[in-house]
Specification:
Length: 195
């Protein structure tokens, strides 16, 4: 099929965006920059494309038919799907009053951005309570307070991209210890026992 006429919509120092008219009966559009295939869409209603600028300044959009969409081209990763968690969030730090815990978001598909929500639960896993840390959903770190003593903390990560959002939860921390608790190695004399 013949190239489509492109209308420039916007331009920056690194990117250029074009629109084009829909082609009845096509199966999508193949995009070229500088004579090289860069990506494609299989949605015939996608009528806008943004290219990274190339030195030649040559950009093409070609409609696809059923044969062309099965030509063995290796398509880029799908960016139109909402995030999927492939390794759950984890918490680093010591579960102790006054010690900072950090929620690591885990591994996700879809190149998302993240928000974080911290929770408190009893040591048996009951009584979940959301913790407002500087505005719910905004803070990756949390420092346990006296009220957390004897319970556990965990975090929930919300991952978002243009296609939607998904959540994943970490395992809870160990039981939160009070700030003044000192843990001595085995076979060590306590201060009151020292000679």
């Amino acid at each position: 099929m013949a190239d489509l006429a492109l209308t420039k919509k916007s331009e920056t120092s690194t990117k250029i965006t074009f629109t084009y008219a829909k082609v009845a009966g096509c199966e999508g559009y193949q995009y070229y920059a500088g004579g090289v295939k860069v990506s494609r869409t299989l949605n015939p209603d996608d009528l806008e494309v943004t290219f990274g600028k190339v030195a030649s300044g040559t950009y093409r959009v070609v409609p696809l038919d059923l044969t062309e969409r099965a030509d063995g081209y290796v398509w880029p990763a799908n960016t139109d799907a909402k995030p999927t968690n492939t390794a759950k969030p984890t918490i680093s730090g010591t579960a102790k009053v006054g010690q900072t815990l950090t929620c690591n978001p885990g591994t996700w598909t879809g190149n998302p951005t993240f928000k974080y929500q911290w929770y408190y639960e009893n040591s048996d896993g009951s009584g979940d309570v959301a913790i407002n840390v500087g505005g719910i959903g905004t803070t990756q770190s949390y420092t346990p307070v006296a009220e957390d003593t004897g319970g556990r903390n965990y975090c929930v990560v919300t991952a978002t991209n243009s296609a939607g959002s998904a959540t994943a939860q970490s395992d809870p921390t160990a039981v939160v210890q009070p700030a003044n608790l000192t843990v001595y190695p085995a076979d060590t004399l306590y201060p009151s026992e020292a000679i």
